[in-house]
Amino acid sequence: MAAVVGTVLVATCTAACDAGGAQSDVRSGSGGGSSGSASDGGGGGRGAPGDATSAADRPGGDGRRVETDQKGGPRATPTVPAPATAFSLPALGPVPTPPTAARLTAASFTDGERIGSYIASVYALGAPLGERYSADPEGCQPLVSLARGATPHTPVAEVNRGLADAEETYGSTVAVQLRSYAAHGAAGVLGALRAAGRQCADGFTEDRGLVRARYLSVETADAPGLGDEAAAYRFTILDVQGKAKFYEYLTVVRIGACTLSFRAETTDGEDIGGVPDEIVRAQWEKFHAAG
Q: How far apart are CA 10 and CA 128, in angstroms?
């Protein structure tokens, strides 16, 4: 039965590629790992074997993106408005059918799964806290988050997973997000991401509600040769106190109607050099195997 599910998922997400798809180009959450939107069929378990806390539940989370209200609890910020910019797309052939949340869940990391030194967890709050942050100017939003409202293309289904380096108390973390889109929405998302990368190369401001962080630069990074197209970026960020620099990496891979997003960051000033290839490859293989 697992093989059947995998076959259906791969066939679904590669339909656009065979018909003429385009060729080309993580912020971990703070506040606990889940399956993303209400349609996500992932479990709500927390913690992982051999790790005292999950990627999202560690003290201080990612050390930079966790803000609290005056009572010490996680702070929620307003929903990000959708940019008004429309993105024209080339002819991409027949419209692929977007996989359901159940199929994306079958293709995602499971709670407690180990990939090298990293352990996966399910976000207890539904998604990384960074999904609530917004960009100024608004056109830079896809670089901050690809959540609902970040582009004109709304996900049909979404699954979010957080991975943390189990060998370091405050090591690197990676947010892995699988999304499916109707029509050619997934290709539109990659178009919006590339447009934001060009527009915001000299930096922008990330609004976290009570505080603001400054992206000093947005640089293209090496994208994996996977899927119909892929894009990757390196961000240099000035912390909210305006004293220390941090580095984040974002890689997004499209296959048919689906996008696989990876955002990597560290809790110190170390530059990890990109999203760990072992995580990208493991998720890619699991996506194809689909359980």
A: 27
Give the pLDDT confidence score for residue 92 in this predicted structure: 58
| Residue 123: Cβ within 10 Å count | 32
pLDDT number for residue 134: 96
CA distance 225 to 230: 7
* The pLDDT of residue 93: 64
Q: Are 230 and 223 in contact (CB under 8 A)?
A: yes
The number of C-alpha atoms within 13 Å of 234 and in the hemisphere containing its C-beta is: 12
Q: Using a pLDDT cut of 70, give the percent of the chain over it.
A: 67
Of the candidates 242, 80, 92, the residue with the CA atom closest to the CA atom of residue 148: 80
Query: pLDDT for 214-231, tens place per residue?
Result: 999 999 999 999 999 999
Computed over every residue of the chain, the mean pLDDT equals: 76
One-letter-per-residue 3-state SS of the chain: CHHHHHHHHHHHHHHHHHCCCCCCCCCCCCCCECCCCCCCCCCCCCCECCECCCCCCCCCCCCCCCCECCCCCECCCCCCCCCCCCCCCCCCCCCCCCCCHHHHHHCCCCCCCEECCEEEECECCCCCHHHHCEEECHHHHHHHCCCCCCCCCCEEEEEEEEEEECCCCCCCEEEEEEEEECCCHHHHHHHHHHHHHHHCCCCEEEECCCCEEEEEEEEECCCCCCCCEEEEEEEEEECCCCCCEEEEEEEEEEECCEEEEEEEECCCCCCCCCCCHHHHHHHHHHHHHCC
Identify the CA nearest to 258 among candidates 1, 3, 21. 21
Q: What is the CA radius of gyration of the chain?
A: 17
Residue 49 has pLDDT above 50, yes or no: no
Predicted TM-score (pTM) of this structure: 0.70
